[in-house]
Fold these 2 entries.
Entry 1:
Amino acid sequence: MTYIASVNGTALAVFGVVVGVTMIITYIASKRIATATDFWAAGRSLTGPQNGLAIAGDYMSAASFLGIAGLIFVFGFDGFLYCVGFLVAFLAVLFLLAEQMRNAGKYTFADVLAYRMKQPPARAAAALGTLAVVAFYLIAQMVGAGVIIEGLVGISFPWAVILTGAFMVTYIVLGGMLATSWVQIIKAVLMLSCGVVLTVWVLSEIGWNPINLFTDARAESSDGEAYLKPGLFLSTPLDTVSLGIGLVLGTAGLPHILMRFFTVPTAKAARSSVIWGMVLIGLFYLMTTALGFGSRAILGKGGEEAAGETGNCAVPTLADKLGGDLLLAIVAGVAFATILAVVAGLVISASGAVAHDVWSNIVRRNRDSEREEVWVAKIAAFGIGALAIFIAILGGATLNVSFMVGLAFAVAASANFPALLLSLTWRRFNTTGAVVGVLFGVISSVALVVISPTVWPGPDSEGGALSWYSLANPGILSVPIGFIGCFLGTMLARERAAEAKFDELKVRSETGLAAEPATGTTLTGRSRQQQRAAAAAATTMVPRM
Amino acid sequence: MAQQRTDTDWEAIERSPEFQELTRSKRAFVLPATIFFMVWYFGFIALCGYASDFMGREFITDGLTVGYVLALTQFVMSWWLAAWYVRRANRVWDPLSARVRDSVEGGVAGEPAPGTGRFRRGEAVAEHEEVPQR
């Protein structure tokens, strides 16, 4: 970090614009949302393309915007490996979950996971899976926000974390999913535009031949030929495979991504939103080639100190070199918007787990009103936000951000994905199976990361705490353990009620019969009369798109 | 919501020829496609892990590695499979699932009126009884 001289005025102005625009959206959204469906699912009235942008905005964190290009800058080819896994993962979401979520669910993926199970235990398991993923992911993002804002703008780390948390909670408490979705849409547009500008600029610098990215980068790297090969960052082959498993299956278990499919009116719109998301996300990841290899080609060895140990500041340093203070400020502003959009998506999914799954379905046994449910969600969002700020400041900049994001993906792949998939596909699967599976998945992935050599005894020591275990990524063990937990738990008990309800879940998830209707609430607004008409039309079950 | 009544005989819908055709047709795509993308992706990952030198080999032109080109094929594969899925969904599965819904709601000409469809369980339930949503 070389920019900690003083507060950067231009960057501060760009931050002001980002905050101003998102606050206006939040204010408008707060006037529109009336029901719990508006609060958690944006009235189920986003279009496919809108939700596709929101998925891109929800999914691509600062780790994608700055982190991957940084890894490429430092380690070459291995950084690009992440892009591949992050994109291919959406095929699993599209084939197995997106439409099924929309058809059979309501607010959280627990609605589908626990559909045919005994409510309290199955909901508790799903809530545990959600909160575990959100905890690791959220704290990683908050720490990342603090580090980046401190580095680029000059606001001190604790204040940067507090501001990020405060804006995030404001979006959710006032504007719910409607505001969150539009913050994510705007962020996706900003991030993609920024990527295009930087890519074109980089290409113009290297003579418009993309191949020069590789040859110039190789010439500027002290690793030479090895820079364009896999193995500099991921040096253990088994670890590479393990990481691949976590990346490709983790996405299908991320609660904030699965939640996005409740925001569209039909399964067809859910499907089209995945396609839009995949095109946008794929295009951005293609551009990281230019950002990552390009920053190596243009900044060279001299840029290494400014880019930082893991390269997180490679893109900002590149922007500074190409376009000076203004471009640097824009990149910083986009990074800030990126983090805000992701943390808001994470916290609203956590508030769903607390209010919808734990409070409504476990504590109050569905005797609470919709109003109460939303109030609990707002209090939960506030509490989770405060806790995340506290932990992020306590842990400080020393928390290893990339290991926490990896852990979030590992928990999602090992705990949430097996139980969700089996609930939809295996008739015999039951409550005990879901509970044991989620517990096995959470415990195994967390435990394996704790005993991994990068965490305990620490990154600089020789070998791990246990001499026979040296994997940094737990997926290759923890995902099978999650599935085995589901299987063993299921075999321990026989639950006729859950088996009998399998037909209902299957028919509903595949056909959209009895799917939750849209309310017609949108940001641009409709009269109450139009909203009622839309709701009436939706209940007749005629597909609206 | 008429369709949320407890009297819907889900088991009978599941066994109906319309629904069976839908799930069979969908499975015939999703299962092979999932296996294909898993093999293609994990093949790539395994090569990255175990065949680093092969992935670093340059071909066609200096600087372009086998690894990067194989990574690009993953992008193409993802977009292509996704587009294929959507085409099939729009052309085959949507009409099939609409047929299932019609057969349940009795919306097709010549079928019984809504609420008296062939998948109704028993007669005792009132026409517009609503099941609590949560």
Entry 2:
Amino acid sequence: MVTPLEEAIGFLDRFGFFRVILPFLLVFTVVYALLEKTKIFGTQKHGDKELPRKNMNAMVAFVIGLLVVSARDVVTALQTSLPNVVMLIIVILAVLIGIGMLWSGEKEFSLFEKLPKLSYVLIAVILFVLLGIFLDSFGVLNNVFDFFGRNYDRPVVTSIGLLIVVAIIMWLIIREGKTGGEK
Amino acid sequence: MAQQTFLLEVVKSLESLGLYNVIIPLILVFVIVWGVLERIKIFGGKSKAINPLIAIIFAFLFIRSQVFVEIINQFLPKIGIYLIILMGFMILIGIVGGGAKWTNIPFYIIVVLSILAVFGSVFTSLPGYSGLGLNFLEGLSQADWFALIILAVLLIIVVWAMFTQTDTKIGPGAFGAGK
């Protein structure tokens, strides 16, 4: 059964709200905010304050936003990847809530402080998942899986595996050298 | 059969309006993304208007794909049940004198349990899930269960022993003098 609010979402979808307006707004906002933050186009004086050049930043953000909206593939990739990213955020939040049950509440909750090693593993997992999400949104993930599936016993894949193992061993040795050793 | 009450009728009419499929997920995603953006300050400290705008865009893009909304609707109640079980456990521990400040092994166990619970909840909430991955448990005999439990207990003892020996001082080893 389709509810009235779902019908409203359907109407907005047919209108182009999700294909044009939201991607444009997102890109415009992000680019504008980054330009304001980095002050790439310099600053101008307003009284005795140095402010970023708002009109220039807004114009550049507007143009980039329109260009992104015109690229269908990018918009589709945005539409498919962002819900996945949000899902990932919610899952991580649920894990943190579970762990937070044991937090005393005297200090701000910080997993990095409590479990630094687990946090590195978590960051690596998040990076891999994000990479997978964005590759999938551009339709490349299946090709990557196909490539590794077909060539898992060929020199290319085994060389990549060997390189990863060597990199991990080197990282472990360097880490040992930094943390331990003679003083 | 559950008795039909006035408040249940209200909940049903809100559900038929689309509260659980549109409004609640929209608010949830909006608040979470806004909260994270405010915390990490990715656009600098003066981004009061930008963070909520990005959060609402994320929220709208999220509710557009109803598959994710369905997953959320099934997965979050399971997390709620897990949290209630965990809280009940902590209350029981509290009766015998344990506090809320947990460290070391019990903390790590709860971390692992939380990760397993969340991923289990998500996995069982995925569309098309039909006991996939857990069917093998149905064919286990009593002896198999017993063996599994013993294995789990042994593993816990080994992990416990490993963690508790970290503070002991290491003597001179075969390959050099340790301190």
